[in-house]
Amino acid sequence: MKGKEMSHHLLIFLPKKEAKMAKRESKFQRDLVKELKAEYPGSYVFKINGKQGYPDLIFLYEDKWATLECKKSAKAKHRPNQDEHVERMNNMSFSSFIYPENKQEVLHELSIFMGKHQSNVYPWKPRDIRSEHIFQVVEQDA
Question: What is the domain range of residue 106?
């Protein structure tokens, strides 16, 4: 077609189950961003797009920053390099995987890191993200 520009669109069809899960993760992420902005007035939350494996969100508040990788559930698979990037950024500042099952714990740790709350419960730097995959809570005989 001479003289006319053509637009090209790529359509990707996901199986119903995958599409539903992606929708659930994006809603979780949207709700999380709203919650962060409400809890930390004047903060910035940016979605990181582009490079594979980088956390989904970067959160800036006063003189601190954090990154969060949103997952639809604790059982959701990690993409290549995600563990490495989250671990490296956690060593620089604060970074964590966050999903509905650990949301309150991560937000509590984030509030301590950002200086909003003091705690004797978590007196150390936020947990090593690798520990989620290594340790389990077990009952001990009394």
Answer: 16-131
Spell out the residues 6+ positions from residue 94 whose beta carbon is closer than 8 angstroms to its own.
Answer: 64, 65, 66, 67, 109, 110, 113, 114, 126
CATH number at residue 27: 3.40.1350.10
pLDDT single digits (tens) 50-74: 778 899 999 999 999 999 999 999 9
Residue 83 is assigned to a structural domain of this protein: yes
In the chain, what percentage of residues exceed pLDDT 90? 56
CA terminus-to-terminus distance, the chain: 81
